[in-house]
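ping. complex inputs:
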Amino acid sequence: MPVYNEATVISDVVRDVRSVFPTLVCVDDGSRDASARLAEDAGAVVVRHPINLGQGAALQSGIDYTLTYTDADFLVTFDADGQHRTSDALAMVRLLAADEADVVFGSRFLDELPEVSGLKKAVLQLAVRYTNLTTGLRLSDAHNGLRALNRDAASSIHLTHHGMAHASEIVHQLAVGSWRIQESPVHVLYTDYSRAKGQSLWNSINILFDLVLR
Amino acid sequence: MIKVILLGGLIGIGFAMLRMRNTHRTGTSASKRIVLVLFLVAFVVSVLFPDLTTKVAVAVGVGRGADLVLYLLALAFVFLTLYTYLRFRDARYQLGELARWIAVHEAGRVEPSRPRPLGAPADEPPAR
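pong. complex structure:
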């Protein structure tokens, strides 16, 4: 779980996740607030980036830690701002545990209509198109922070985009391997907090730039 | 003629940039030095023979030598900007990998955790 300046919500999110999942690795991406200590107090293992590196780097550190220092069979990536529901993550892990898939992506657009503005929706759909076009997969949501992977699939990921373009990169790297990929419906809780913390649309331009000049 | 040269130069730069990722071979760095030397020689020659730039400019379809110099300078600037951007990004990536390595292994050294199997009670803090 990548964490960057989430002190107001991190304790609750960590406690909520830990009520279901025994091990939670928070990667503090150089937060300037008390996020790291609060996450630790709430029972998470905390990997501390000495400087802010970006969400992709934080995810990779979380994966590296999990593979190196735990013997977990499954790995879930989770947003720290409280926009994901633990129950959705659990449903995804059950799919992995039942050996029906190696990789499960969360999707906002699978069953219910999420509360996103028109422009944001258009940009997200465009991102999905791009990802599907370049990977040959048929996903409905390319940029959801909730993903579940089994250990083998997780160990095949080596993110080189430290910034926000990692979402496309993860899909890309998993599409190259012959993993069984599924999608699972996810309800995203767009609170005022997560909306304020969430990506602005300007960032999609940065992502596009990163992807072209990789 | 000048249009072909300038656009060709731009496209050439684009291809060089796309090819350049992860290639730090001696060949590329040698060719960069050759270009640099040629640039310096061209500079000296154009200072010694100011009329020459105008002659070349007319030959390729630009009115004045100063214009030709400006165009080529703009091209060089684009190249430099992109090149610096890519080098900077490489350096940042390497810094990030270093920082990540330290962070991950520092965390592992402090508290290697042993996860319980799925569904096991999770109310106590993780084993240290």
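The helical segments of chain B are 2-20, 26-48, 50-60, 65-110.
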